[in-house]
Amino acid sequence: MTDTPIRVLICEDQALVRAGYITIFSAQPDMEVVGEAADGRAAVEAARRLRPDVIVMDIRMPIVDGIEATRLLSGPGTETPAKVLVVTTFNVDEYVYEALKAGAAGFLLKDAPPAELVNGVRTIARGDSLLAPAVTRTLIGHFAERLRPSDTSRPARDEIVRALTRRELEVLEQIAGGLSNAEIAEKLFITAETVKTYVSRILAKLELRDRVQAVVLAYRVGLVSGTD
Predict the structure, then answer these.
(1) At a CB cut-off of 8 Å and minimum separation 6, what does 114 contact?
(2) What is the pLDDT of residue 228?
(3) CA torsion sign, 68 to 226 to 188 to 200?
(4) CA-CA distance, 221 to 5, in Å (whole number)?
(5) Once rounded to an integer, what is the mean pLDDT over residues 131-154?
(6) Which of 19, 133, 178, 213 could make a disulfide contact with 208, Cβ separation 3.0–4.6 Å?
(7) Confidence bin at 211 (pLDDT 50/70/90)
(8) What SS3 state is found at 123?
(9) Within a 13 Å sphere around the CA of 7, how many CA atoms are in the beta-carbon half?
């Protein structure tokens, strides 16, 4: 861990929740809260001005919602995509898929314990992606129909199968299930370092930015099913 603290921007419209996040992160020796925003437009302005290492983003916010704010900061065409950790609740899970496409680097649920939230920020800061398994299961359960591949996705699926080795395909399936590198390693009887190497190869071969994009792609082209 470097001596430079992780600079965190909090974007949450509920003052009490925002204050709670600030308290949690400010108590960490390796983190610094550099700003806060109560709506999406202010979040975008603050992020562009402050250049935080990680943005903790709520989805449901006034003026500009968290999905659009994420798209503006991390979506296609952004020169330097921001690292956005979306903290969501089950009652807004209909927005999760859109936020994934918008460029979010990770998801946690609002009822996650503080230690998990802190670890999530550290994970995003070091360049990894984070999908809470519960969020992934919700995504699958609620969007099985939306994520079901169309006939036009077949060529894309075949291209992916040709591009990846059999083991890489296995790892991609586990990523899409929301498993961490350690969990994939245990399930496939390989080391976590080996899994990390496979993940890097998968992202490079498929020209994906992170494992969140890998999850979206896996479901969109039907490599894994949302109806299992």
Answers:
(1) 24
(2) 45
(3) negative
(4) 39
(5) 54
(6) 213
(7) confident
(8) helix
(9) 11
